Amino acid sequence: MSTLWNLRFLGVGSAQAVELGSASAALERDGTPLLMIDCGQEALSAYVERYGAMPMAVFVTHAHLDHVAGFERLYYQSLFDPARCGKVRIYCAAALVPILQARLADYPSPLAEGGANFWDAFQLVPVSRGFWHAGLWFDVFGVRHHAPGTAFGIALRGAFLWTGDTRPIPEAVALHADAGETIAHDCALQGNPSHTGLDDLLREYDEATRSRMIIYHYARAEDAVVLRAAGLKVAEAGETWALGPPWSGMQACARAWGHA
Ligand SMILES: [Zn+2]
Predict the structure, then answer these.
(1) Cα 13 to ligand 1 centre (Å)
(2) Positive or negative, the Cα torsion across 246, 247, 249, 254?
(3) Contacts of 83 (CB under 8 A, 6+ apart)
């Protein structure tokens, strides 16, 4: 039987839309989570409720709290579990490391009794063009969210591209998702300097590209009705979407490094 690949939306809301969950997903292989994308509070709760365990691998798109606030809980849960301590892989762009340090790890003495550093619980893996995980190559690329160089998307060739919070990024989508990949894209009814609005999405992407998109990061449940009326597919929290089979790791890695 062939392997089944799914993207599970753990949350689909904007920073204010707590009832829709914090924007996050898990890549599943035959129903088993391989990689969590972002770790907001609600997202971590949704992950644990769904899978009955904390994640062993997280990719961080950027350091807004609705994407990283779950890390404190993940820290305590991992530090005191010998099977997890120091083995929970945190993948993030190298440019994001100083910001993560400031947001997560710089609190004086993470344990009141001392004796432990924040990163002791994790295996932090700074990345540039992408990274290897579970035998797969994941592309990482800059997106347009707040200050330049502070937010990143992720793509698994053949399977999916996840924009993270962003304005439209047609050039990155064309580069990293030109082989029929599912595209999970930030979009709300109204755009702003950090996020995509419906008019932005319709202007910046052609119909064929939009037909591969699943919209997330919207503000209210009723907004999904309007987005669907515009011909878009819209994710709801907890849903899975079937993905195409990922490229082999070497094939995808060679492409990322410009050798294919
Ligand atoms: Zn953000």
Answers:
(1) 11
(2) negative
(3) none
Radius of gyration of the chain (CA): 18
What single letter denotes the amino acid at residue 152?
F
- For ligand 1, the distance from its centroid to the CA atom of residue 8, given in whole angstroms, is 20
pLDDT at 251: 86
Burial category of 203 from C-beta neighbours within 10 Å (exposed 0-12, middle 13-18, buried 19 and up): exposed
Residue range 114-132: mean pLDDT, rounded: 96
Helix residue ranges, H only, the chain: 41-51, 65-68, 71-79, 97-100, 170-176, 198-204, 207-210, 223-229, 249-256
> In this structure, which residues have their CB less than 5 angstroms from ion ligand 1?
64, 165
Model pLDDT for residues 171-188, shown as the tens digit of each residue: 999 999 999 999 999 999
Q: What's the confidence (pLDDT) of residue 17?
A: 74
Q: Show the tokens assigned to 80.
A: 């005191």
In the three-class reduction of DSSP (H, G, I as helix; E, B as strand; rest coil), residue 230 is classed as coil
Q: How far is the CA of 145 from the centre of ligand 1 (A)?
A: 7
Taken in order of first residue, the domains within the chain and their CATH numbers are: 5-256 (3.60.15.10)
Is 192 a residue whose pLDDT tops 80? yes
Q: Which pLDDT tens digit goes with each residue over 23-34?
A: 999 999 999 999
Residues 6+ positions from 10 with CB-CB distance below 8 Å:
21, 22, 24, 25, 26, 36, 42, 43, 46, 47, 50, 237, 238
The pLDDT mean for the chain works out to 95
Please tell me the distance between residue 62's alpha carbon and the centre of ligand 1 in angstroms: 7
Over residues 135-160, the pLDDT tens digits come to 999 999 999 999 999 999 999 999 99
d(CA 247, CA 260): 13
Report whether 137 contacts 129 (CB < 8 A): no
